[in-house]
Amino acid sequence: MKNTKVGIVMGSDSDLEVMAEAAKILEEFKISYEMIIASAHRSPSLAHKYATSAKSRGIKIIIAGAGGAAHLAGVIASLTILPVIGVPTKSKYLKGLDSLFSTVQMPPGVPVATVGINAAQNAGLLAVQILAINNKNLEKKIIAYKEKLEKDNKIKGEKLEKIGYKKYLENK
């Protein structure tokens, strides 16, 4: 997409299904993005080049997702002044706790905003909210999005109250 605002980087194609959720949110809000695979461990020079060139290419925010050792978001954050949102992805053996700890436990001076395990949708929404700080049109869209969440939640609550939990679960 032209006029790219958000970079989505993942350590492996095994993270793609999760990271696609961030892309879907950005598409919903009509925010341009680019998406690449650049492992902190298997392709460190590519991750370095991506992080150090992002700002000059117009990127405003980077969403970085990885599993296991999950050093990608921290490595990216150490190489740029751009905000980095880390997405710890669910791992095979520790169900993503290893990824969460690796992403969230950054040393002073290298902040990474971290969302929940596999929560790339929230990473996309956080990117939208950051961009909306200086964009009234985007601000209106995020307000409408949150109002819809509230309305949908209210409708579900009313349905539950009306039909009870057993029928609600049967019809889900």
Question: How would you describe this structure in keywords?
Answer:
172 residues; alpha/beta; five-stranded parallel β-sheet; 15% strand
Describe the structure.
The protein has helices at residues 16-28, 44-53, 72-79, 97-104, 120-132, 136-170, and strands at residues 6-10, 33-37, 61-67, 84-89, 113-114. With 172 residues, the protein is of the alpha/beta class. Helix 1 (16-28) runs parallel beside helix 5 (120-132) and helix 2 (44-53) crosses helix 3 (72-79). It is globular. The chain starts with 5 loop residues before the first strand and ends with a helix.
Short description:
The chain is α/β, with parallel strands linked by helices and 172 residues long.
Instruction: Please estimate the helix content.
Output: 40-55%
Please, how many helices? 6
Q: How many extended strands?
A: 5
Low-confidence stretches: none
SSE series: EHEHEHEHEHH
So what's the overall shape?
Answer: globular
Q: What is the strand arrangement across the widest sheet?
A: 2-1-3-4-5
Task: Kindly report the average pLDDT value.
Answer: 95
Radius of gyration: 18 Å
Distance between the termini: 37 Å
Query: Approximately how much beta-strand content do the residues carry?
Result: 5-15%
Structural class: alpha/beta
